[in-house]
Amino acid sequence: MSTVYYQEIQHVVNQGLAELSEEQAKGRVPKNPVSETHFIVRWVTKAIKTHRFDRCVVKDLMGWQQEGRSKGTSAGLKVRFEHISALYGHVVPVESDVKKITQDDITALLTQFEEESWFVVTDHEISGKAKLFSDGDNSLVVCKAKLESVFSDGILAKPLTCYVRGNHNEFLEMTAKAGLLVHKKSDYKSIVKYHGEYQIWPENQSSELAELPLSFMPSVK
User: In a structure prediction context, what are the per-residue pLDDT tens digits for the chain, which is 221 residues long?
Assistant: First the structure.
């Protein structure tokens, strides 16, 4: 059975934070950003060398290693670990069963965006470059054909692409509240002019780290 990415990434960050806490409790690592960053970079490096975690998270580990070495404390690795742990622990806890995303879930989410005064477009097919006139409002576009083709027996079976303009963090907050992880493909350069491209994956099982809503960052709470 293949390893589920969202479970393994939680094992990584939760274990890293737990071992940092243990070392600090023993007085071996001072509680300051420099020492914490140094510990995490060494911890990540050792995890890579010993193949401690599944290969599905190797890209993340190597990225953190590079960031920690080049940016130092400005990489914010401890906060990043806490941020990831908070979001994933809320949406897809390690101990929970894999959740199937239904067509009703997506319909309810789109309705919620409309109720929050977003300009929601789901009745047009999108092929090639498209332009949307939303008068500057927050807007969410989903191709009609894609919306009809990504479900099988009412269950999301293929990634659903959403095009977003305006308050991107509000989009992330609302999807997280609905129990969905979203993955950014573009900030604003997509086939829908001025809109960023995001994807929602079946069972929240993408192989890459999801976008992190600000409310789940420890320093923001």
Answer: 578 999 999 999 999 999 999 999 999 999 999 999 999 999 999 999 999 999 999 999 999 999 999 999 999 999 999 999 999 999 999 888 888 999 999 999 999 999 999 999 999 888 767 666 556 689 999 999 999 999 999 999 999 999 999 999 999 999 999 999 999 998 877 888 889 999 999 999 999 999 999 999 986 44
Left if phi > 0, otherwise alpha if psi is -120 to 50, otherwise beta: which for 4? Answer: beta
Q: How far is CA 26 from CA 17, 21, 31, in A?
A: 14, 9, 11
Using alpha carbons, select from 153, 149, 146 the residue that is nearest to residue 198. Answer: 146
pTM, full prediction: 0.92
2 to each of 23, 49, 54, 56, 91, how far by Cα in Å? Answer: 32, 22, 10, 10, 20
HEC string of 166-182? Answer: CCHHHHHHHHHHCCCCC
Amino acid identity at 11? H
Residue 174 to residue 108: CA distance in whole angstroms: 11
The two most distant CA atoms of the chain are separated, in Å, by 60
Residue type present at position 195:
H
Burial class (CB in 10 A: 0-12, 13-18, 19+), 150: buried
Domain definitions of the chain by residue range: 5-96, 103-204
CA angle 191, 172, 118 (to 5 degrees): 65
